[in-house]
Amino acid sequence: MTAPNQTTETIEIQGVTVPRLGFGTWQIEGSDAREAVRDALEIGYRQIDTAQAYGNEAEVGAGIADSGVDRGEVFLTTKIFPGEFEPEALRAAADTSLTALDTEYIDLLLLHWPDDSVPLEQTLAALVALREAGKIRQLGVSNFPAALLEEALTHAPVFCDQVEYHPFLGQGQLLELARANDVLVTAYSPLAHGRVPDDKSLAEIGEAHGKSAGQVALRWLLVQPAVSPIPKASSHERRVENFEVFDFALSDEERARIDALPKDDRQIDPDFGPDWEA
Questions:
Q1: What CATH number should be reported for the domain holding residue 205?
Q2: How far apart are CA 165 and CA 46, in angstroms?
Q3: What is the pLDDT of residues 149-158, one digit of tens each?
Q4: What are phi and psi of 264, to 5 degrees?
């Protein structure tokens, strides 16, 4: 089953139109990644997210080519990992991504995690130079708590902060800052690594709409200003399910019920991660 006639909503950030729902490729590798991206684009997704650390950029690029969708219709994001944040290394890493993805430009290039071994001002200046050279269209960060995003905004026109965000993890302070500065918040792990389908409240809300708990969680994120969820899905059926979230609306009461769920379950918290409360 596909959804060929269904189109995604869009969001405008800093004058740029971005497909509101994206397809994430973390932990999808090799030929599976190529097939997943091709399939996602055929279903109707137009925002694709990858990273050098995922080890699948070449397959993501091949999947885009296989789909037959014009490159200009795809909003493509990739990320560079700490260790490559010195300006010269960052430029080289960006070229590596361009080659692997087989594209002339990247729509959005992110710093994958904070790295205090290199002054943030220097790294962001290198991203600005890449944009001025036409190699990237927009620049941003990932896994930056509010204080670090605020600092980044003093150095460069940050377009996006990609963070973990789902019904069991709040991002109130970051969202307030992002909306005040017209910054996109991309929500990764929007289904909380499988916790969402098992939640009774989300399932009950879904039943009222003929939808799954996962579709409810995605809709809850999609209606929030400046938020773009990027669910990963390893099967065609799940990719279709995640995409079929534009044909129903949550009531104020239902949104409030989701808002009231505990918001303290962080799924991704590596030893090198930042101070999330900063």
A1: 3.20.20.100
A2: 20
A3: 999 999 999 9
A4: -130, 20
